[in-house]
């Protein structure tokens, strides 16, 4: 799948969402491949695919990922990771990843991926990071040649079910001046709390290296607590199940009372950004407590209550989506206008792992772009 296709518009207007400046905080490298690239790379290494054409393969990913289970959703990554085991494969995927972000109007992105999953062909951890960084820089140059400006940083990710978090944390810090901007843990959430990697998080805190943690997707409030207090997360990867800590009482047709629990109040008061991914949250069953339709997503509840919500894709290939598409879907369902969409982007800009001055400049770029819409 290439993200250079459909243009999306704000509901009821001729305003192109695709042309607006956007920020991407939660976007997995191994979930953002073009289907055609997978076919080509698979042919080169003799890897058998579940479908032989790019269109059929793209359909397979979207269907397989929509099972309602995070565990089943994650199985689709066996295919993408298989073609990302060489320096050439990693660099190509990273380059196209940036090209597709830029084509969708993203001006700043943070791409997360787990180097420990890309060692099967003999690369070292450092070599994988270098290969991805080379691809990112090529993609940035490609975008510049097309008149687009984009900046991209790596979120070096450890797999939460493995025991390499300290090694990966040290890898991230080692590359902090060569593309790495933050650290994450990902993978099966239930049963693998952030506290299992407390030593790595302690090290990162000592190194003043920022952290985001997947939490509140396949597990509930305890996982979020662990992300915040064991992981010292500055952002929550998804965090959608934080809504379980919010009580809504309707006294009559006109009166509704909302009470925040201690955890949700803390997240709101500290302005900890939620990396919400609407389509993905539906596919993985993260919002099954509230329903199985986008209108059931607690995104709007969290937004109306003043939480720092951001809009993300999670995995563009698996969800057949882009940032612009996610924004268009939300605007259709919740009747958001241009001001709302700008708020989501400013929230994301403020939550990036850039230095303060760069975050302020990014916010100015966003505001200027929305003013011109």
From TrEMBL:
GO molecular function list: adenosine deaminase activity; metal ion binding
Pfam family, one: A_deaminase
Domain Adenosine deaminase: 21-367
GO cellular component entries: cytosol
Class in the EC hierarchy, top level: hydrolase
Top-level taxon in the UniProt lineage: Bacteria
Keyword Metal-binding: yes
Keywords tagged on the record: Hydrolase, Metal-binding, Zinc
Keyword field contains Glycoprotein: no
InterPro entries listed in its UniProt record: A_deaminase_dom, Ado/ade_deaminase, Metal_Hydrolase
Cofactor (UniProt): Zn(2+)
GO biological processes: adenosine catabolic process; hypoxanthine salvage; inosine biosynthetic process
EC number from the UniProt entry: 3.5.4.4
Family: Belongs to the metallo-dependent hydrolases superfamily. Adenosine and AMP deaminases family.
Protein name (Swiss-Prot/TrEMBL): adenosine deaminase
Organism per entry: Subtercola boreus
Taxonomic classification: Bacteria, Bacillati, Actinomycetota, Actinomycetes, Micrococcales
């Amino acid at each position: 799948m290439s993200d250079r296709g459909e243009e999306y518009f704000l509901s009821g207007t001729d305003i192109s969402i695709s042309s607006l400046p956007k920020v991407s905080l939660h976007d997995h490298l191994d979930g953002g491949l073009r289907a055609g690239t997978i076919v080509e790379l698979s042919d080169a290494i003799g890897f058998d695919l579940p479908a032989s054409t790019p269109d059929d393969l793209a359909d397979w990913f979207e269907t397989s990922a929509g099972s309602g289970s995070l565990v089943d959703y994650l199985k689709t990554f066996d295919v993408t990771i298989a073609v990302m085991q060489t320096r050439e494969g990693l660099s190509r995927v990273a380059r196209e990843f940036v090209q597709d972000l830029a084509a969708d109007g993203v001006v700043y992105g943070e791409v997360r991926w787990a180097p420990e999953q890309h060692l099967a062909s003999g690369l070292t951890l450092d070599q994988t990071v270098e290969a991805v960084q080379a691809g990112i820089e090529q993609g940035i140059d490609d975008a510049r040649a097309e008149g687009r400006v984009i900046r991209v940083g790596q979120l070096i990710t450890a797999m939460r079910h493995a025991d390499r978090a300290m090694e990966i944390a040290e890898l991230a810090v080692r590359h902090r001046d060569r593309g790495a901007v933050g650290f994450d843990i990902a993978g099966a959430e239930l049963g693998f709390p952030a506290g299992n990697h407390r030593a790595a998080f302690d090290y990162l805190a000592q190194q003043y290296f920022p952290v985001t943690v997947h939490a509140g997707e396949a597990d509930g409030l305890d996982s979020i607590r662990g992300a915040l207090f064991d992981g010292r997360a500055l952002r929550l990867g998804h965090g959608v199940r934080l809504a379980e800590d919010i009580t809504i009482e309707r006294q009559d047709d006109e009166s509704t009372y909302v009470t925040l629990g201690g955890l949700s109040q803390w997240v709101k008061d500290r302005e900890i950004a939620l990396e919400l991914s609407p389509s993905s949250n539906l596919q993985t069953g993260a919002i099954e407590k509230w329903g199985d339709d986008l209108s059931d997503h607690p995104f709007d509840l969290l937004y109306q209550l003043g939480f720092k919500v951001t809009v993300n894709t999670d995995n563009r290939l698996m969800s057949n989506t882009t940032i612009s598409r996610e924004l268009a879907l939300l605007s259709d369902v919740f009747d958001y206008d241009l001001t709302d969409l700008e708020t989501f982007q400013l929230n994301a800009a403020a939550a990036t792992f850039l230095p303060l001055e760069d975050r302020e400049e990014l916010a100015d770029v966003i505001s200027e772009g929305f003013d011109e819409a």
